[in-house]
Amino acid sequence: MPFCISALIVTLITLACTLVGAQSLPELTPRQLAVHQLVNASRILAYQGIADDSLGHISVRDPLAPDTSYLVTGGSSSAAHVTPADIAIVRINDSVITSAALSDYGPPLRPAEIFIHSSIYQRFPNTTVSSVAFYRSEQLLPWSLYNTNTSSLTSSSATAADLTAFFAATSGTAFMGPHPAPVFDVFDAEPSTTSVAVDNTVKGFGLAQKFGPANASVQTINQTDGFRPLVLMRNDGATVVGTTVPETVYRFVQAAKSARVQYHASSLASVSGSVPQFLPDQATKTTDQYLPSWLLWMSQIEPSINADSTRSPELWKGDGTTSPASAHSGGQAIQLPFKSSASMLPVCAALILAAML
């Protein structure tokens, strides 16, 4: 190929990439990023069958004040229809909603079980827990109906009598460690209660204790008295924690899949008389390879987000402005991919093809 043609191709490719870059880099503040992650997370969990028409919510520490507040999906929207207008800022110490996360909206309704999030954030540092999700997942609810709080029980020592406990049955649930998921019984925390909802600080504190000792590290999941990233809640659902929103979503989805696997494995065990081989100690992990799954799930919910933002643009226009008290250098705008970059791909392809002809 003549040098001039090669040079032309390189020039056109560079121009195409520059156009894509220019189109794909809008400015988002850290708080806007957190808001959009929560919106995406809620819709992904609905798409995956974790959150349907039942109540549930996911949160993340406020990037502008991670030690004192967090962002949570509130409002009255179902999980599949959460928008930026539904995201609230909540104080960790008293569970009070201070405002909407983005400045263009009024304060969303506070979830009744907001104490789940506040109590867990109070108990653990942000290096252990930076995101919390509670949903009434029907895949996990059956395992919450059995009291299996035996701290010495492990996957390798389980017998047929222990199959009502929820163990890590797949590689996707390696984050659980070798111990079964603890079960929080709200009637132990508050014997006189008439509701299974974690709707006050007493119940919230009792639930938070099930995740392990205060200030426990994620590195202690193999220990008898170590950290537990997933806690089942009697008659109510499950709460899962992680260090990022995508990680928490990944863990919830993988836990639901593992629950189905364990159910079928236990059915086979009742016929054969043997015990399923759950993940052993050496196969546990403290981090998850969630990025490929997250990107796939994002592509699955993109049509619904585009449709909703077109139908109700006023619910998606929040500008992420923060109050003077909370604004600092961490509130600077950052660059993130934008959907308009996809429209530039045909332009790039046409330019490259033209250069090759």
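Next protein, fold it too.
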Amino acid sequence: MTVVEERPLLPSLENDPAMALQLRKSLQTLSDATPDQAFKTMVTEVLAGRISLRDVVDSTTFSGVVNPLVVGSLTELSQLSAEEKEALAAQGQRRIEEEYAASIAAAPADGDDEYFDDRPPILGTDW
């Protein structure tokens, strides 16, 4: 991953690499699903770090693509049974957990300081 790809698109995701990656994937999925070339270009610029996601969410280009998708998704969701909604939620939860597990596995080791690798418990009784 490049430095730009590692940087979260929103400051609130600084400490949540799995959700930051999921946001990137979601934007790419939206871009892939639309024929709107202006939207595709805008997403490419956001993912490359040349413009901010916060700067584009209020644009007519962004809302013109995303708003109809949200309305359609809400319509589909309203037609699902309670069991189907639960299954969909469970599927989403599994995907999030998989992303977290992958981000933890990909995280660099904490360091080479032997003291901190096997530090004694602070509340130990041996002092």
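About the second fold: The helical segments are 3-6, 17-33, 37-47, 53-56, 60-78, 82-106, 114-117.
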